Amino acid sequence: MERALIVDIDNCTGCRVCELVCSLYMEGDYNPKKSCITVLSNKETGINIPVLDMSCDFCGRCVEWCPSKALSIIGLDEAIMARKHAKIGKVPVVRMSRTNV
User: Fold this and answer.
1) Residue 80 host element (H or E)
2) Among 12, 85, 94, 90, which Cα is nearest to 51's?
3) pTM value surpassing 0.85
4) Which of 101, 97, 13, 99 is nearest to 49 (CA)?
5) 6 and 89 Cβ atoms separated by less than 8 Å
6) Phi, psi values for residue 33, rounded to 5°
7) In the chain, what are the domain boundaries?
8) First to last CA, the chain
9) What's the fold here for domain 2-98?
10) Nearest to 73 by CA among 53, 54, 57, 55
11) What pLDDT score does 89 carry?
12) What is the pLDDT of residues 21-64, one digit of tens each?
């Protein structure tokens, strides 16, 4: 099943907990440089956008641990509809993957 990570930009605080959780799960180390997700922040606008690395396996740990509930994982069909009807501030994240679920 193909899946996509959705970020609600209005809810993302830029705390980067997702980076730490991902790096711990993937590499066994709290090191954002080893994470599959990176939060890009624009201090002038206050906008934070999580972006995925190609090695993401959509385990969902970033979604589970996000304190502001800014992340969710949905199926590709739902992501296409979300993109089609997207409002400013809620869009599918760049990377998609094929997984066997």
Assistant:
1) helix 76-84
2) 94
3) no
4) 13
5) no
6) -70, -20
7) 2-98
8) 6
9) Alpha-Beta Plaits (3.30.70)
10) 57
11) 56
12) 999 999 999 999 999 999 999 889 888 988 888 888 889 999 99
